[in-house]
């Protein structure tokens, strides 16, 4: 068993998480300003990804540029990993590959704790990715604890590139925001990602 074998039912049954659904969890988070150069980039890549319409295209042309822009805005105080193996507890199925992992450590050559955000890319079906994302969040919690860098709140994202859904994990409770945020408002999506990282990056890091 691996991350991709989990759905919402199995994460509840096998990992003991409690799932709550709420609306407007991140509604009050402000958008950040978008650089003109990045807006121009998205104007080119988003229609292309929509035209190709595969998970790989959306991951490479929308999701990865968004996360690279986030890292740039945070002055490289975070590290970003794509498609890496994240084996934490094979006995419980917490093993396999993660699409994207964001760590609050600036070191890029290896994954260091604390892991704070797990981003799972899905092609046109966000709901199908929720269980896998939650399993990866539980693994991140275990990883942080083992590395003696526990954090109160872990975050998860399931996205098609054009639609973004956000989750939180505290202790054993997962909250799924019922709202989805669209790539047509990239400042809002980046604002929420900034909010997720704000408590763990240096206070002198600019937010835009």
TrEMBL record:
Source domain of life: Bacteria
Protein's name in the database: Type I restriction enzyme R protein N terminus (HSDR_N)
């Amino acid at each position: 068993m691996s991350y991709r074998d989990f759905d919402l039912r199995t994460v509840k049954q096998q990992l003991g998480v409690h799932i709550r659904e709420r609306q407007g969890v991140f509604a009050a988070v402000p958008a950040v300003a978008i650089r003109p150069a990045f807006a121009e980039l998205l104007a080119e890549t988003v229609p292309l990804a929509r035209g190709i319409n595969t998970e790989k295209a959306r991951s490479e042309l929308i999701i990865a540029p968004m996360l690279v822009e986030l890292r740039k805005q945070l002055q490289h105080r975070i590290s970003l990993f794509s498609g890496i193996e994240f084996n934490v507890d094979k006995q419980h199925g917490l093993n396999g590959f993660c699409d994207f992992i964001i760590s609050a450590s600036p070191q890029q050559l290896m994954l260091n704790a604390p892991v704070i955000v797990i981003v799972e890319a899905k092609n046109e079906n966000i709901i199908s990715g929720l269980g896998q994302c939650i399993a990866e969040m539980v693994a991140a919690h275990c990883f942080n604890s083992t590395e003696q860098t526990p954090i109160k709140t872990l975050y998860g994202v399931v996205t098609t590139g054009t639609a973004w859904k956000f989750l939180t994990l505290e202790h054993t409770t997962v909250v799924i925001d019922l709202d989805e945020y669209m790539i047509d408002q990239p400042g809002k999506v980046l604002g929420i990602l900034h909010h997720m990282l704000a408590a763990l990056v240096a206070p002198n890091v600019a937010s835009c």
